[in-house]
């Protein structure tokens, strides 16, 4: 929105008269605070960093296009979670994530023990090129969604229930046996799902190296997806509030 747009909206919705110069001063201060937050120094080590993208439709040059907000949430040495940053780009790609990871390093991050991501093509290689010692865990929830993409509706409940036997297994070896059982039952009908699990097996099963109590926070990006949901609802809430007040 332009400054004049904000001025008219403030008058129409709230009955507040603000000059364009006052609005400019306020927005400049907000922009400066946002920039300082985006570029603030980070800690040298994070135990876990969850990474995911959320797509928004935005109007640009008179056209509605998709843009992606790239999000990183880190778990520091004190066990506290913090949003490390938000970056805006076009469709999610490993190339853009390279810039995000490079920015994290420039702001002081020297090492990440575990990165939790979706199975975007080339993502793991991109992470390794910036943080070579980091271990990548592909989000099991994303993997399940991809596996279920072409499963017929009436079989989806049973299919996902059988998948639980894999990632809820007590050990990696037991999980491998459950995957074999899963293939015997579903392999002929949904071979692509089995191929995907086997192709990504090492990165899907990193969490088995850790105690049972913390496995769930490692094998899923649900934490960051909850944040995504709040971000997605913010513009919707703001828009609906404006419509109601009008």
What does the model show?
It is built from eleven helices and five strands; from the N terminus they run ααβββαβαβααααααα. It has a five-stranded mixed β-sheet. The chain is 54% helix and 20% strand. The chain has 246 residues and is of the alpha/beta class. The longest helix has 24 residues. β4, α4 and β5 form a beta-alpha-beta unit.
Give a summary of the structure in a few sentences.
By secondary structure, the chain is α/β, with parallel strands linked by helices. It has 11 helices and 5 strands; from the N terminus they run H-H-E-E-E-H-E-H-E-H-H-H-H-H-H-H. It has a 5-stranded mixed β-sheet.
Fill in the keyword field for this structure.
11 helices; 5-stranded mixed sheet; alpha/beta; 246 residues
User: What global shape is seen?
Assistant: globular
- Largest sheet properties: 5 strands, mixed
- The separation of the N and C termini measures 18 Å
Derived from helix and strand composition plus strand pairing, the structural class reads: alpha/beta
Mind telling me the C-alpha Rg?
A: 22 Å
Helix-strand sequence: HHEEEHEHEHHHHHHH
Beta-strand portion reads 15-25%
